[in-house]
Design a protein that fits this description.
Elements: E1 19-22, E2 25-28, E3 41-47, E4 59-66, E5 72-73, E6 78-82, E7 90-93, E8 97-98, E9 103-110, E10 123-124, E11 134-139, E12 157-163, E13 182-185, H1 195-198, E14 199-202, E15 219-220, H2 223-227, E16 239-250, E17 254-258, E18 271-275, E19 286-297, E20 310-323, E21 330-331, E22 350-351, H3 364-369, E23 375-379, E24 382-383, E25 393-396, E26 409-410, E27 421-423, E28 438-439, E29 442-450, E30 453-458, E31 464-465, E32 482-492, H4 498-511, E33 517-523, H5 538-550, E34 556-559, E35 577-583, E36 588-590, E37 604-606, E38 612-614, E39 619-620, E40 635-641, E41 644-652, E42 666-667, H6 674-694, E43 700-705, H7 713-719, E44 727-728, E45 741-743, E46 746-748, E47 751-755, E48 764-767, E49 784-788
Helix pairs in contact: 4-5, 6-7
């Protein structure tokens, strides 16, 4: 499991930076001005895009100018920076003096790109500034500010600039910026304490004090002119006017409007978001004319570099000209705009914003971009994944590609399911729903983008139509079969409480039919995420086995090895690991062989008859291999079933956290985590090869949370080739049944069981779908059970 950290789309307490004109009257809401305008040193330029994609300059910078007639000693002064809504200020101390009319350049953090170093700086800091929104203060002092939205008027602040979505500024914020624009004071020698009117978004010009001409007359434009047939607006950075449309929806900091007279080009969206900074006073059905700056807003700021931008108007002046009917929603799906069925993007090799191609008819990424901001409808959308903790719900129009047997949609090597879209609760609550459900009628809303996904924002809570999907239970094994399960128990520790342990126990007894052997993943130590130095997990495992008995199940014993403290990833202090449970009332026996330890590798030894055994059981597989750095080391156990040896290896490979999103700006997405899983698979495969080299007919099972797909290179490595190839049981299922996990509506394999070939003839296999498709989960993974008959070598 990978933790996800999120915040909503710019919904904080922001100050209005727009003017609203109603029936000819102008109503402007502005922040209180700062202290008297500086007559000495002022901030003349702020740039946070240094070294970013497309940037000319390699560093961020802040430029100051002395407006007085005398030199100013800056010793003891500082420039300080905070994020748009932040209260933590980073400080760069200044020194030396600045001559009358001269510029003083403060160099800040360096990015990975850019082609041009800055001119020689007068002061140097290391502050990484946002390329789009933030706050900069010139302070007569060197102690960090501690204020939030009141710093512009704080004692000691000589000058202040808030830009983009900053919650503090002089009068109103300067424009939002980008990798190629800085906030540049139009007249360096003037300071009237109004960031909005005195600063323009212009090309960076460090130590070049030339007055920026007044804002040009706005360019008349239609919404489709602004959106253009590309991921970036052809009018980005320009002031546009007479932009007409009808308000379709509004949020806490802006509204969407749409042109009721569209052009004939399906590649150009007819909808657009207007960022007002606080609750807009317009309503759905208002006919409006808007003037504003075309801005490409990248959700997540400097931390969201994988995200696409959304095109919007900022610093708007809004005129309500009357009322009009909200346009009928553009239908997505049968009878309307049909999304591509397999391809998200197949013609880019990097940043899609600069690729020069835009193909909505064939590429899902371009298809949804062509609908950005529009008022859309999906007729009876079908639910492909449960409502998440973020209140997101994945749906597809009718007629989508390969569906699971229970109504989901299967992720495949050549099909990432571009018809999926996530409903989000920005404008209306999203109900609980499960895979296989449907939503009634035409669900209408606007299309947005955030957190690496296009988001469909309904304006009314949809009605759920129950699809009838129930939690599955597997059958019991026959007396000759040993049943072996894998089960991710999702960061289990005693602090989870009795309800979690009882729920897992019910799963083991009722849904998994009390397997003979269970490989557990995500078992934490006795005090969980408390970073106490404790590594033992006996309390955790004893609570689980006791809960199974309480639920009417058999008595299980357990085996595991404590890891080195804080060495294997997961929550700090949790000491996540894998473990075995096995029944004590069945013919399955665990072969205990001393000598195992957290850093001690188990090896393959033979007895006097040449039969293989583990040197230590339980034992860790290849723990010194760098592949297992900050990852869970596999655990091998030697069992017997009716006297026949059975070797089981339980795994939890490294997660996919850090990979590019499927719907991100980098295409094809880069899976930076894959090479480590390949190394881990090679490590485990090497151990299996050593075992089969001693006995090619050894009974071997490799199972666990592999964190990779059935069609992945990781799985290919584990399977191997030739006579010693393992059988990957998920690959033996029809495609529509291959899933143990649902992520953003995609049903996919992450958990796997592989068996040696000699076990296959009498085997059966079941992925027990009782977690991943439901919003109320006891774990986010579906467990699996394999039933096999271990036979002696002479029978094979």
């Amino acid at each position: 499991m990978s933790a996800q950290i999120r915040s909503r789309r710019r919904l904080g307490a922001l100050v209005v930076t727009s003017s609203l004109v109603v029936s000819g009257a102008v109503v402007a809401v502005v922040a209180a001005p700062a202290d008297a305008a500086s007559s000495t040193v002022v901030i003349t330029e702020v740039y946070g895009g240094g070294g970013n994609s497309g940037a000319q300059y390699t560093h961020d910078f802040i430029e100051l100018t002395n407006n007085s007639t005398s030199p100013i000693d800056l010793s003891g002064w500082s420039v300080q920076y905070a994020s748009a809504a932040g209260t933590t200020w980073q400080v760069t101390n200044l020194s030396g003096s600045i001559a009358p009319g001269a510029a003083y350049l403060v160099q800040e953090a360096q990015g990975a790109g850019g082609t041009t170093p800055l001119p020689a700086p007068d002061a140097t800091g290391t502050i990484p500034m946002s390329s789009s929104s933030g706050k900069v203060a010139l302070v007569n002092g060197q102690t960090a500010l501690t204020c939030g939205a009141t710093c512009s008027t704080a004692a000691g602040v000589v000058d202040f600039v808030g830009y983009g979505t900053a919650n503090d500024f002089e009068t109103a914020a300067a424009p939002g910026l980008s990798n190629t624009t800085s906030a540049t004071r139009k007249v360096p020698t003037a300071d009237a304490d109004n960031n909005s009117t005195e600063f323009a978004a212009a090309a960076p010009s460090p130590k070049t004090l030339t007055s920026t001409p007044p804002d040009p007359d706005p360019v008349d434009a239609k919404i489709h002119d602004i959106q253009g047939s590309a991921h970036l607006s052809p009018l980005a950075g320009k002031v546009v006017g007479n932009v007409t449309g009808v308000v379709t929806a509004k949020s806490g900091n802006g509204f969407w409007f749409q042109d009721p007279q569209p052009d004939t080009d399906p590649a150009t969206s007819e909808g657009l978001f207007v960022f007002t900074g606080s609750a807009p006073t317009v309503n759905a059905g208002d006919a409006v004319t808007v003037k504003g700056t075309v801005t490409e807003f990248r959700p997540g700021g400097s931390g969201g570099t994988d995200n696409l931008t959304t095109t919007e108007l900022t610093n708007p002046t809004i005129t309500v000209t009357g009322t009009a009917a909200v346009p009928a929603p553009t239908i997505v799906g049968p009878g309307g705009r049909v999304p591509p069925s397999t391809v998200i993007d197949d013609d880019s090799t990097g940043d899609v914003e600069t690729t020069g191609t835009f193909q909505p008819a064939t590429d899902g990424l371009d298809f949804w971009e062509s609908l950005e901001g529009m008022w859309l409808g999906i007729d009876r959308p079908q639910v492909t994944g449960p409502t998440s903790s973020f209140r997101e719900l994945s749906v597809v129009p009718a007629g989508s590609s390969v569906r699971t047997v229970r109504g989901g949609i299967v992720l495949q090597k050549t099909d990432s399911n571009p018809e999926r879209v996530l409903l989000d609760d920005v404008l209306a609550p999203i109900p609980d729903a499960k895979t296989g459900d449907k939503l009634a009628g035409v669900v209408a809303g606007v299309l947005d983008y955030s957190f690496g996904n296009f988001k469909f924002l309904p304006t009314q809570t949809p009605t759920v139509v129950d699809g009838g999907v129930q939690r599955e239970s597997t059958r019991r094994s026959s007396p000759l079969q040993v049943s072996v399960a894998t089960f991710n128990v999702e960061n289990l520790d005693p602090s989870d409480g009795a309800a979690k342990f009882d729920g897992l126990a019910q799963t083991v007894v009722r849904n998994l039919a009390s397997p003979d052997i269970i490989g557990l993943e995500e078992v934490q130590d006795n005090d969980g995420a408390t970073n106490s130095g404790t590594t033992a997990a006996d309390v955790t495992l004893n609570l689980l086995t006791a809960a199974i008995v309480k639920a009417g199940g058999p008595k299980y014993a357990w085996r595991q090895i404590d890891p080195v403290n804080n060495a294997e990833g997961g929550e700090p202090g949790g000491n996540i690991r894998v473990a075995f449970l096995y029944r004590t009332d069945k013919p399955v026996k665990f072969v205990d062989r001393a000598g195992g330890g957290s850093t001690v590798p188990t090896t393959i030894v033979t007895d006097r008859f040449g039969r293989p055994h583990l040197s230590s059981s339980p034992g860790r597989v290849d723990p010194a291999n760098p592949a297992w750095e900050a990852a869970r080391v596999p655990l091998a156990g030697e069992f017997t079933w009716h006297g026949q040896s059975l070797f089981v290896v339980v795994n939890h490979f490294s997660s996919k956290g850090g990979d590019d999103p499927l719907w991100g700006r980098t295409q094809p997405p880069v899976q930076v985590t894959a090479p480590k899983r390949h190394q881990q698979a090679q490590s485990v495969r090497g151990f299996v090869d050593q075992l089969l080299a001693k006995d090619k007919g050894a009974n071997v099972i490799v199972l666990g949370d592999i964190n990779d797909f059935d069609f992945s290179r990781t799985t290919d490595i584990l399977v191997g080739s030739g006579k010693t190839a393992l059988v990957d049981l998920p690959r033996t299922l029809p495609v529509k049944e291959r899933y143990s996990y649902v992520f953003e509506g995609n049903s996919q394999i992450l958990d796997q069981i592989l068996i040696s070939q000699n076990l296959r003839p009498a085997s059966s296999y079941d992925i027990v779908h009782m977690n991943s498709e439901f919003p109320d989960q006891i774990s986010d993974h579906d467990p699996q059970v394999a039933r096999v008959i271990p036979l002696p070598s002479w029978v094979r």
